[in-house]
């Protein structure tokens, strides 16, 4: 590869997990291009506001917008994101060009007392800021108390380990990537709690027309992961989802068949609409659209309209 640049710059958030992901991609890019790669740490809106639930902050791109500004300005050559944080509508001229191989897509529990969802005592305090997790937890355990928990990964885990809450629910992928898998008390199967769109996957965002980055992305991309995440993101896009709504979608390949589970839930947990469908592996967009049509037929639009018209405080206190 004969690039016209002397070095490359990756835009990343500054959390420990974001830096782990950026360092991981940095090593791969250096191996592909032979160029030195620098990290540029960029603070996002989501990093600055830690005392308010994400669903209350509102807006899209809470963890990506500031990185994209630098990418569009040319001060960074690519951005590294957790795919579950990436909006489905991206700024003109930018796109997700690659996803390396996904790791564990499941949600996990961390508990100082060793609780699982089944062994949690009545009225236990469950820490999460995700409306998707809140809806599904309340459906499984309507007796528990939901406590909004923000902050970096280690901070949230310590709140459970020191008893500030009984458990926290987090993405298994991030904990595993940080080398903290032994701190996980239990994993929640995806058939019990459907994952967030893109959970466990890293996304590479680049500028359209950047031929060097296009070539690099082709070598970074894990085709099966890209297919699955593409299908999931159709669900989020068509339902206009994000941090503000409880939507989950998890796709995986079974040979040449793409299988997807998706949910839309009311935040009180009383209504969880579930769809399981499959289709050809080479038609992820069509499968995503079929899943959305099935969810709408079940009444997803009414649930989402009610959630969007409610205050977040009332949802969390339901």
Walk me through this protein's architecture.
It is a single chain. The chain is an alpha/beta fold. The chain has three domains: 114 residues, D-Maltodextrin-Binding Protein, domain 2 (3-Layer(aba) Sandwich), CATH 3.40.190; 82 residues, Periplasmic binding protein-like II (D-Maltodextrin-Binding Protein, domain 2, 3-Layer(aba) Sandwich), CATH 3.40.190; 82 residues, Porphobilinogen deaminase, C-terminal domain (Double Stranded RNA Binding Domain, 2-Layer Sandwich), CATH 3.30.160.40. Helices cover 36% and strands 22% of the residues. The chain contains twelve helices and 13 strands. The N and C termini lie far apart (57 Å).
Evaluate the radius of gyration: 19 Å
**Molecular shape:** globular
Total helical elements: 12
Quaternary organization: single chain
CATH topology assignment of the largest domain:
D-Maltodextrin-Binding Protein, domain 2
What is the terminal separation in angstroms? 57 Å
Overall average residue pLDDT: 90
Structural class: alpha/beta
* Estimated helix fraction: 25-40%
Strand arrangement in the largest pleated sheet: 2-1-3-10-4
Can you name the CATH architecture of the largest domain? 3-Layer(aba) Sandwich
Instruction: Describe the main β-sheet briefly.
Output: 5 strands, mixed
Query: What is the β-strand count?
Result: 13
Strand-and-helix sequence, N→C?
EHEHHHEEEEHEHEHEEHHEEEHHH
How many distinct domains? 3
Low-pLDDT runs: 48-60
The fraction of residues assigned to DSSP E strands is: 15-25%
CATH superfamily of the largest domain: Periplasmic binding protein-like II
